């Protein structure tokens, strides 16, 4: 019974069985990816309903978006998308890639439902009536309401990759001798949030980097010299983060939610930040503008990144974190025209102060 021929046939049968299983799994994954592409296209149409509603307040019927979606049609489309998503979730798949995209689509559906429900309540009221969402969210109305920022958006990195990144379309035109960088951050699954941003120049890949790699603490790098920052963002909540630095004695400060959490000196003193580099969001650069490492990539969401060529005061930083003022950077200003997204980085309307 244990002859070589018997063993050969048994092994061959096992190999054939494994090959069939792999083919079935591949077909399942391909089917899911096709479904996800279809869902994404439909979600884009749904999103355009929201945009169309605001445009239509200038004359057209408020019940039709620019794609002709009525409130009833939009609701039916969302329900169909949810059913398709449940069908995907009901299938077994070992693909973490597919799982991450399913989670992404679910969050997108939830956000659309909230957006559409508020907008439909508004359009059903007379034009001169108080918008219904002012009763639901009284903090958004009244004399203290700030004008809506057209560049209020967030970008998301749902998983660690070496191909998802954002690129700032501007570089430094001359050396700077001080800086403040502020942004809103929401960390994803650990360990570490990875690299929210990196600035690389010819001859120095780590000219300016913020990184939290693996189980190491968060670090600020200037000219490839590092200091540890007493900051932690692993509670999956939004936080306002500011870092200041000056060539004068290499002095630095770290603020979290408007409060100074740490400071020090001797971080690359008297070394100006060089011009002509590449500013990347979500990845650490091993060469100028590239050679990303997935283990160091950012996972989570970010918004409103601003960079100044001066050290902001503690009061200025606190007021931004408390949403009592909004300053824009003279080097980098957060805007849709400034940020170029690659590799599937997500983008949603988002205002951390509303």
Automatic annotation (TrEMBL):
Segments forming domain Pentraxin (PTX) = 151-353
Q: Give the matching CDD domains.
A: PTX
- Listed Pfam families: Pentaxin
Top-level taxon of origin: Eukaryota
PROSITE patterns recorded: PTX_1 (PS00289), PTX_2 (PS51828)
Q: GO molecular function, one example?
A: metal ion binding
Q: Which cofactor does it need?
A: Ca(2+)
Entry protein name: Neuronal pentraxin-1-like
Source species: Sinocyclocheilus anshuiensis
Q: Supply the source organism's classification.
A: Eukaryota, Metazoa, Chordata, Craniata, Vertebrata
The gene name on file is si:dkey-14o18.2
